[in-house]
Amino acid sequence: MIRAICCVPVSPLRAEPSHRTEMVSQLIFGECCEVLEQGKEWSRVRMRYDGYEGWCTSTHLTEIDENEYETGGTPLTPEWVTALEYNGHPMMVPMGSHLTAMKNGRAHWRKNQVHYKGKTWDPASAALDVKAIRQLTYKFLNIPYLWGGKSVFGFDCSGFVQTVYKFLGVSVLRDAYQQATQGEGVGFLEETKTGDLAFFDNEEGRITHVGILLNPQEIIHASGKVRIDKIDNMGIVRSEDHQRTHHLRTLRRLLAPADK
């Protein structure tokens, strides 16, 4: 199996090998994947982080060794955008990029070299108290909604949740309906803690949306943009016009209860 890594700031992951098809997700700089099919223009890949599959532009990937693939994921870049050098040339990468196989500010991905001396974020040591979770989620406020997006240049609802949880050291799946199968159920909104997830369904009962609870009355989620809205036992009420936008389906806890 060919192992590869994303060597551009953000790369679209598409449903089919064509730029005209749906962007189902993204690869962020330093993310590792398995190449399932390799072509000159397109490669079908499976993400190491969440097992998601799709088609990626082949030139956005570079092959790496097995030991680099196994260490892929941490540390992360903590700033909105971060400057580093890739093969001696400057590159700006988004918050949450993976500094895979980085040692003493350098990484060697076979013949390619990454050089970075800035601050890093270690998810394993991330604080899980209320203040820390709020500070982290607030960094993403007003990022525009983007179907398939999971970077500071655009999020969909589940991409936002996955990115926040990645910084907290917890791996979650890619889509909202998949994330709803993880963790433990919480019976009532009044019993929720900061960092719990709320899921919402459509008229057919299919889970189509997810957000992160700040408290039992407020939720931060990607809907139009990353925003804070009110929530009650029926669902989300948009802050600006008090319109009900999403119907509450279920509540899940993936983090240990945060301290108040």
Mean pLDDT equals 95
Anisotropy-based shape = globular
Task: List the strand order in the largest sheet.
Answer: 15-16-17-18-19-20
Percent range for β-strand residues: 35-45%
Helical/strand content category: mainly beta
In the CATH hierarchy, what is the superfamily of the largest domain? endopeptidase domain like (from Nostoc punctiforme)
Helix segment tally: 4
> Regarding quaternary structure, how should these chains be classified?
single chain
* Low-pLDDT residue intervals, each spanning 5 or more residues: none
Number of strands: 20
CATH architectural grouping of the largest domain: Alpha-Beta Complex
Describe the main β-sheet briefly: 6 strands, antiparallel, barrel
Question: What does this molecule look like?
Answer:
Strand 10 and strand 11 form a beta hairpin. The protein folds into two domains: 2-115, Roll (SH3 type barrels), CATH 2.30.30; 126-253, endopeptidase fold (from Nostoc punctiforme), CATH 3.90.1720.10. It is mainly β. It has helices spanning 66-70, 130-138, 157-167, 176-179, and strands at 2-6, 10-14, 23-28, 32-38, 42-47, 53-57, 61-63, 81-86, 89-94, 106-109, 112-115, 150-151, 154-155, 184-185, 197-201, 207-215, 218-223, 225-231, 235-237, 244-253. Strands 15-16-17-18-19-20 form a six-stranded antiparallel beta barrel. Strands 6-5-4-1-7 form a five-stranded antiparallel sheet, with no helix packed on it. The radius of gyration is 19 Å and the shape is globular.
